[in-house]
C-alpha cells in the first residue's frame, strides 16, 4: 500500500462487495428494485462494483452528481433531492441524454417544470412520512392533487409515484423503533397508492434509508428501495443495531502527532475537516467521534469504548485512552479510526484507497 503520511480514507473492497451482494439478494427476495443511493461513495469506480450484481438504476443527491454518473455510463438516475428550479436548464440537458427522475413537493416547482421541461422526465412526489425535514405530509391530498394537475399540463412529464426517505430511523433508540417507523411509513405510502392507483395505474412506491432496508422484512406494496450507506456502513449504523463492526468497510488512518500523559490523551492528525462533527453517544454518555484500532505486534486490535476519539477541531483529533493503551501508542504511529458517519467522512476526504492499494478518486465538487 502507498505510504500513509496524512489522514487517509481506507476502504475494504471485499467488505463493500459483501454488503452490496447482501442488499441485492434482499431486494431480489422481496421482489424490489434496488436503486442504490450513490451519495455515500460518489465514485465511478465503486459504482462499477454495483454492476457486478445487476444494478443498472441509481439514486443521486444533486444535479452535479447526476451529471458525473451520467458521464460515467449510468443512464437511469433518480435525483432524490427536491427540485431546485434554478437548475432547470441543466435538468433539461440531462434528460436529453438519460432516463431522469426528479422530485417535486410544491406547486411552484411543478409549475416551472411543466412550463420549461423540454425532454421526457419522470416525476416522483416527495412525501414526508415522519422525518419532518421536507416533503408533502402524507395526509395532504389536496396539495398532491394540485401538483398533479399542474404536471399534467406537460405531456413530457410522467408521474412515477410517491417517494419517501424515512430518515428518522437514524434517530431510533432501538431496532424496534426502526421497525415501527418503517411500518408507519409503509402504511402511509400504501394509503396514498390506494387513493391514486385508479387514475395512475402504473404508479410506484419508493422508500430509502439503510436502517430499514437492512433489517426490516415487510415491504408489502413497495416497488423500490434506495439505501446508500450500506455499501460502507459506519458506527451510527452499528449503534442502531443495523450492522456488525465487521460490516463496516471504511476507516480513516491518521498519524499520531503528540501524547499528553497527564490527560491520557493522544493527538492525531485528523480533525473535523476529515471526519465531520457527527457523533454518537459513547457508553460513558459522552460524545464519541470514532472508534480506534491500533496495531499490537502483527495484529490490529479494536480498542474498547474506554478508548475513543473524543474531540475534534479543524485538523486535530483527541483520542482518550486508558493508561495501558497510552503506553502502546507512539508518536509517529498510524491509528485507524472507524467514523461515525461514512457518507460525510467520504465526502470530506474526496478520495480513498482500498486495502489492496488501489486509489479511488471521488467526483469533483464543482
Automatic annotation (TrEMBL):
GO terms for biological process: D-serine catabolic process. Pfam families: Ala_racemase_N (PF01168), D-ser_dehydrat (PF14031). The keyword Signal does not apply. The keyword Lyase applies. Signal peptide: none annotated. Keywords: Lyase. One of its GO terms (molecular function) is D-serine ammonia-lyase activity. Residues 249-356 form the D-serine dehydratase-like domain. Belongs to the DSD1 family. This is Alanine racemase. It comes from Draconibacterium halophilum.
